[in-house]
């Protein structure tokens, strides 16, 4: 059966095959041909780390490296990232023929996964001022309640990404934090789609929403970016 889920696009990546897959009720891995005819899907064993790898071919299902970002200059590959509230980040330097993708939860973003994937892209010939980055559907601040033990992981300069919530609670702005990390690298363009995974239950899986409701928490959505032949 054909995959008919909705595909969201970022204006800044319009020149590069890509898509943030919306829709719920889907199982299994996405078809890379949704964005790149003949494309071969590359996935990682994501572990909320700051590690980024270079890829030149797909990995067998049981042999995917533990990493949360990747970059390639190999035509025909489609890089895929799985998320359920964390920020999927897709990147491209079209002129250099280099693409990247990152799974940026708070931990990965805080400890350097965004910087790591940009460095990997540079190793392949990308230039920071030519890289366009797009942040896909992510949990919004009003739905990301955290406690003091979470806040303690951050520095005083990060206070702007928190606001007071209920007594003893704060609200963390993950998409703004990821945007700031990207913009700090002086990239050519940084774009955020501004779609909230928690609030839009008709379009997105949300680990936190499922937890609050006592529902199954294994739902995910995929974000894909490909490099044409």
Automatic annotation (TrEMBL):
InterPro entries: Cu_polyphenol_OxRdtase, Cu_polyphenol_OxRdtase_sf, Cytotoxic_necrot_fac-like_cat. The keyword Cell inner membrane does not apply. The keyword DNA repair does not apply. This is Purine nucleoside phosphorylase. Signal peptide: none annotated. Keywords: Hydrolase, Metal-binding, Transferase, Zinc. Transmembrane segments: none annotated. It holds the Pfam family Cu-oxidase_4. Belongs to the purine nucleoside phosphorylase YfiH/LACC1 family. It catalyses: S-methyl-5'-thioadenosine + phosphate = 5-(methylsulfanyl)-alpha-D-ribose 1-phosphate + adenine; adenosine + H2O + H(+) = inosine + NH4(+); inosine + phosphate = alpha-D-ribose 1-phosphate + hypoxanthine; adenosine + phosphate = alpha-D-ribose 1-phosphate + adenine. It comes from Aurantiacibacter marinus. One of its GO terms (molecular function) is hydrolase activity.
């Amino acid at each position: 059966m054909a995959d008919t889920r909705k595909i969201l696009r970022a204006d800044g990546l319009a020149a590069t095959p890509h898509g943030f897959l919306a829709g719920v009720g889907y199982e299994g891995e996405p078809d890379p041909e949704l964005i790149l005819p003949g494309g071969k899907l590359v996935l990682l064993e994501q572990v909320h780390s700051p590690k980024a790898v270079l890829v030149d071919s797909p990995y067998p299902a049981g042999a995917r490296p533990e990493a949360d970002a990747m970059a390639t200059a190999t035509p025909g590959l489609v890089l895929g990232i799985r998320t359920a509230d964390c920020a999927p980040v897709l990147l491209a330097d079209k002129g250099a023929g280099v693409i990247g993708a990152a799974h940026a939860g708070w931990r990965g973003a805080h400890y350097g996964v965004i910087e790591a994937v940009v460095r990997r892209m540079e190793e392949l010939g990308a230039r920071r001022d030519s890289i366009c980055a797009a942040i896909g559907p992510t949990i919004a601040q009003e739905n990301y309640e955290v406690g003091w033990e979470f806040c303690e992981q951050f520095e005083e300069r990060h206070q702007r990404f928190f606001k007071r919530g209920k007594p003893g609670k704060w609200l963390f702005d993950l998409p703004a934090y990821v945007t700031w990390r990207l913009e700090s690298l002086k990239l050519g363009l940084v774009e955020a789609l501004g779609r909230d995974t928690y609030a839009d239950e008709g379009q997105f899986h949300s680990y936190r929403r499922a937890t609050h409701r006592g529902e199954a928490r294994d739902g995910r959505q995929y974000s894909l970016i490909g490099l044409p032949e």
